[in-house]
Amino acid sequence: MQILIDNKSGTPIYDQIYTQIKQQIIAGHLTGHEMLPSIRGLAKDLRISFVTTKRAYEELEKDGFLYTIPAKGCFVAPKNVELLREENLKKIEDHMEAIVRLAVSCNLSSDELLDMFKFALEERP
């Protein structure tokens, strides 16, 4: 697992950790039941506060991405495929809303927008 902290970013460090671990889980780079570094170990590696790392892990556990076994550690929760699908659908809807706003500001017709979308799909490898 690789975590990169950007101290110049306006994003809180715990949120950077949360986001990167969550992305690695969703992408399949971290798999179900895989053990994560200890909270203290990750804090030491990243040279940040134990409290910051603890908060990120707690948020991930609250959102169903991790589970903790006392005296054993933190582990990646098995993927809830439906939960991940819903999350991705929400992201798509948000992106589509932004696209619609831009299209309206450019006076694009729905046909022109659909043509652009079809072209983008055809360009996929």
Verbal overview:
The protein has 125 residues and is mostly helical. The chain is built from 5 helices and 2 strands. A two-stranded antiparallel ribbon has the order 1-2. Strand 1 and strand 2 (73-76) form a beta hairpin. Helix 1 (13-26) crosses helix 3 (50-62) and helix 2 (39-46) crosses helix 3. The radius of gyration is 19 Å and the shape is elongated. The two termini are 28 Å apart.
Summarize the structure.
The protein is mostly helical and 125 residues long. It has helices at 13-26, 39-46, 50-62, 81-105, 110-122; strands spanning 66-69, 73-76. Helix content is 58%, strand content 6%.
Percent helix among the residues? 55-70%
Spatial shape: elongated
How many DSSP E strands? 2
Order of helices and strands: HHHEEHH
List keywords for this structure.
125 residues; mainly alpha; two-stranded antiparallel ribbon
SSE arrangement:
Blueprint: H1 13-26, H2 39-46, H3 50-62, E1 66-69, E2 73-76, H4 81-105, H5 110-122
Antiparallel strand pairs: 1-2
Helix pairs in contact: 1-3, 2-3
